[in-house]
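**Polypeptide and fold**
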Amino acid sequence: MKKLKRLPIGRSDFKSIIEDNMYYIDKSMLIKDIIESGNVVLITRPRRFGKTLNMTMMKYFFRNDQDNKHLFEGLKIWEEKEIREKYLNKYPTIFISFKDLKQPNIEDMILSLKEIISSLYNKYTYLLETKEITQWDKKKIVEILDKTANKASFENSIKNLTEYLYRYYKQKVILLIDEYDTPIQQSYLNGYYNEFINFMGNILGNALKDNEYLEKGVLTGITRVAKESIFTGVNNLQASTVLSELFNDKFGLTWEEVEETLKYYGLEYEKEKVIEWYNGYNFGGKEIYNPYSIINLARNNGEIKYYWINSSGNELIKQLIRQSTAEVKTKIEELIEGKEIESSIDENLVYGDLDKSTEESIWTLFLFTGYLTWVEHVGEEGEPKYKLRITNKETKRFFENTVINILEENKIEYENILLLLKQGKKIEFSENFKRMVEETISYFDVSGEEPERFYHGLILGMIVGLKNKYIIKSNREAGYGRADLILIPKEKTEPGIIFEFKKYSVDFDKDLKDSAEKGLKQIEERGYEKEIKSYGIEKIIKVAIAFYKKNIEIIIK
């Protein structure tokens, strides 16, 4: 019986994986694709889709201070003789990763960023011994090393390093920047984005724009960040996002690669389940599987579990769901129900727009982070409008859990409130419902102009909080009209519940009670109960709720 290779769980360094003879899915032809692409290449993919592994692969391929030929023998790129002879270990190469820059305040972030740049310079202290570098530049190198350099010097530090290496080797430089947007995202999450973005933008922009010492620049991240934009003016920039065909099979796994992996480890599996749980990613029209989940699936002998969503990195998504408008929550409700939504996608994400709850920016971020996938392009030619859906069963669980957690933060206990309703405790139900609105209306109606839109948040919570006991329908055809919310019990002895929400009208309603009475009348006249009865449910509770700002009137029948 042959000894199986170990799986590279927790490994993202190409050299250690190859030298330790671990299981490796050959993505080496990315090197050829990069060589044939523009001067600067930006690649955005969700977390844990192999970005760092591919970047370290390129580092070991290009760098001219090591002989790494043994790492590539037997891989697909080794067959490319012309590329091998011209590029393999032939270029001075700078590799820098920002993946660990997650500091809570701007002072610590800038300090950590300076530390990373200082550590980068420390790898090239031999430059201090060469006549190709002037005394003035050596002084600047020392100031970066001991972190006494001024702000402008740090903003130019990566560009300057490319120049020093060019002078030393008489050869243009390969620059690889991994997870470039992690500190930018963290600055947004922790409230210092506006203070930090220019400093970070200048470090990157100076290194990439009109840099005559640069042979090739490659950056990876989750998003393409725009801010007076970092990439504006970058010569011959090529961007590969989840919408692009460029490199669409180089990050994540194709079905053939999934099958090959599971077969290698002799695993019995249900193809349909693997598809349902870990497929769904559409990268430039290519069907892609989550590599992190597949590797963990193999490690756990084919056990289907939630792997990717439990690997952290989703605080920003949670925050956006928490603070989003009623319109966004309505669409999240539809997504959880398995529907598709449509949205324009702006590949140049402006984090500042997230504060304004700009729908386009929110759905763009959800797409780029892998929580949604695109189904098809539905806009006119040149219009970036797409149909979106939840990616797979893993990401659906994330949406459901996030909604429940957010609602639990506000002590919304749907089952307890419904129990009061079923027990006929109308006064207690009304009091608890009013308290719930007082505690949560800011979450579900940030505009403050249409508080009856609160019900979208209520529906969203019920869909995920009560789905085991009820079939939940909202704004669906019911009888002759459209009921706001219908709860159909899976246990036929339980009562069905119809909710109708009415906005108080100064022109047409005498008072809130009159508005609620009209809601109850609408339930009865339009025959909303027919849908519940079609499931064999006989007992039905009808609830009409009238809103005016935070004031509520409830009538139950």
